[in-house]
Structures are given as C-alpha cells and as structure tokens.
Design brief:
The chain is mainly α and 170 residues long. It has seven helices and two strands, in the order E-E-H-H-H-H-H-H-H. The protein has helices at residues 23-42, 45-61, 72-98, 107-122, 126-137, 142-149, 153-169, and strands at 2-3, 6-7.
Length: 170
C-alpha cells in the first residue's frame, strides 16, 4: 500500500525487545489496567491506588530476581488481588471483635416461654383470658373481640384490663 509515494507497511513484524522491560516501562504499561481492575473490585479510588502501590513495591523489591518471576504482570495482579482478600479478611476479623456474634437462639426457650404464658393465663378467669388472647395475641379490636365473645366492646376492654392487672400481680 502506498500513500503519496511512500510505502506504508501494515501488520509488519513488531520489534521484539532485546530483554525484559525496565521497571519504569512495565509500570507505564500496566499501572492503568491494574488501577482500573482494583477500582472495579474495591469500589474505592484510594484503596485501588494503595493496593496498586503495594503490588508495585513488592515487584520492585524482587526486581533483581526478575528471572524467577515467570510473568511480572500476572505477579502484579496476583499480589494486588491477594491484598484485596487480606483486607477483606482483616475487616471481617475486626468486625467480629467489635460486634459480638448474636447468641444462638435456643428453640427450647420458646417452649418454656409458651409454658410460662399458659401457666400465667390459667391464673386468670376464662373470660379475662379470652379477652386478652383475642386482643393481645390475635390482634382483634375490642369491637371484633366483643362480637366473637357475644358481649359489649366495653365489657371486652374491662375484662382485658382486669386480666392484665391480675397478670402483673402474679
């Protein structure tokens, strides 16, 4: 292909670098990709920058042994992602220390509570018990409870009030 008398080669051979890239070249080539990946994972620009710096620092510390690192880019990503996991783990441990785990609920406690409620309700009159159960446990209004019991709404309110007073005394 020619452009105004000049030959332009498309898809020609790329220059193969003579040796491994310098640290500066690797940094310039990879830092944007690594930052964007970390930002996407952490959702925080500050965290992404800090994790990226830590990863490059670890690579810099091992730069004299670069021949032992098979793929420096993969190494950077691996170090950075390990940093994300370590931060998450430390945050979970700290949260467990700050927030005590909720006590496991014992299903037998419910049985004991129900027995206690039954025992207490047996200590009041059947009409008071009926009024309290309809109003407090089943959530009926005094008018609805009165229709169910066949009495006046004021009678239901009086029975429930007397029943509550008797329960407080017991």
């Amino acid at each position: 292909m020619q452009a105004e008398g000049k030959v332009v080669e498309l898809g020609g051979e790329r220059e193969v670098p003579a040796g491994p890239p310098s640290f500066d070249e690797l940094f310039l080539e990879v830092h944007d990709r690594l930052y964007r990946a970390l930002y996407f994972i952490t959702g925080s620009s500050a965290d992404a920058k800090e994790l990226m710096q830590d990863a490059f620092l670890k690579l810099w510390e091992r730069w004299d042994r670069l021949d032992t690192i098979e793929d420096p880019v993969a190494y950077l990503f691996r170090v950075a992602l390990n940093g994300v996991r370590m931060r998450e783990r430390r945050a979970r441990v700290a949260a467990r220390k700050i927030l005590p785990a909720a006590a496991a609920r014992d299903p037998f406690d419910d049985v004991h509570v129900r027995d206690d409620v039954r025992r207490m309700l047996r200590g009041i009159s059947p009409r008071q018990r009926t009024a309290i159960v309809l109003i407090e446990i089943f959530g009926y209004s005094s008018e609805e409870a009165a229709r169910i019991m066949g009495v006046q709404p004021t009678t239901v309110r009086v029975l429930a009030s007397q029943g509550r007073a008797a329960l407080r005394e017991s």
